[in-house]
Specification:
Layout: E1 4-10, E2 13-19, E3 25-26, H1 28-43, E4 49-54, E5 59-61, E6 63-64, H2 66-71, H3 75-94, E7 99-103, E8 106-108, H4 110-117, E9 120-124, E10 129-130, H5 144-151, H6 153-161, H7 169-175, E11 180-182, H8 185-200, H9 204-214, H10 221-235, H11 239-252
Parallel strand pairs: 2-4, 3-6, 4-7, 5-8, 7-9, 8-10, 9-11
Antiparallel strand pairs: 1-2
Helix pairs in contact: 1-3, 3-4, 3-10, 4-5, 5-6
């Protein structure tokens, strides 16, 4: 199957689904398409609530595309690539509709950033998380503010520093990343459908006002995340990072 981002609106629920054959990774085109769909949903009169999901069973999202990371040749290219993550997070932040995350599998790097940027994350019990950026010579600079906002500075620091260690789904829920955990995919989907159905019938003005309150203090993120993208875009050019990424890619083949 080819990579895609698609959306479908029914009964006020806008389901945005993404897929990439490389473990639901996020190349620039997928990031651009995700931001575009979220922006559309934000202004669509037929959309009352958004469900963000990915195709597959074991992995929700594996983060940045390593193929595109190693292809970056300049600071400008690096800034452009990592700004793609900033655009998605900021689109989710500014969207006046609640976004429910259906987290059916593991989250790595940028995938943790997506899970942290939804307003209510409902997860399967095997949705462990890992911020692996330092392990490949970078750091979770762009997704960091979203993750830290959700789980706190101490937990974010631990997750960022111990970059090769998985944290369990239970750990993620205790820290506030996930709102619910379910033992079966069927139960998870029932919970997503139940909440989405209720929100689709709720007052859109009240939900928009609530979302502004929940995201209070993030108004400067347009500039902040661009600054963070520049840091990652510079680090990805270092010999250390390139060697680390190549080593990681070789280990996954």
């Amino acid at each position: 199957m080819e990579a895609y981002v698609k959306s479908h609106v029914e009964h006020g629920i806008n389901t945005i689904e993404f897929f990439h054959p490389q473990s639901n990774s996020l190349p620039a085109k997928i990031l651009e398409a995700l931001a575009k769909e979220i922006h559309f949903a934000a202004t669509d009169e037929d959309t009352r609530v958004i469900v963000l999901k990915s195709l597959g069973e074991k992995i929700f999202c594996s983060g940045a595309s390593f193929d595109e990371l190693v292809a970056i040749k300049s600071k400008e290219e690096g800034l452009r690539f990592f700004t793609g993550f900033a655009h998605v997070i900021n689109a989710m932040r500014k969207c006046p509709k609640f976004i429910i995350g259906r987290i059916q599998g593991k989250c790595v790097g940028g995938g943790v950033g997506l899970a942290a940027s939804v307003d209510y994350a409902i997860a399967f019990q095997h949705a462990d998380i890992k911020l692996s950026e330092l392990a490949v010579g970078i750091g979770p600079f762009v997704v960091g503010p979203a993750v830290e906002r959700k789980i706190g500075t101490a937990a974010f620091s631990a997750l960022s520093i111990d970059a090769t260690n998985w944290r369990s789904t239970d750990w993620a829920k205790r820290k506030g990343l996930y709102s619910e955990i379910h033992e079966t995919v069927e139960n998870m989907d029932e919970a997503v459908d139940r909440l989405a159905g209720k929100l689709a019938k709720s007052n859109p003005e009240a939900m928009a006002a609530m979302k502004k309150i929940f995201w209070k203090g993030t108004e400067h993120w347009d500039e902040l995340l661009k600054e963070r993208a520049a840091i990652s875009g510079t680090l990805v050019l270092s010999d250390f990072t390139r060697a680390a990424i190549e080593k990681f890619k070789a280990g996954t083949k």
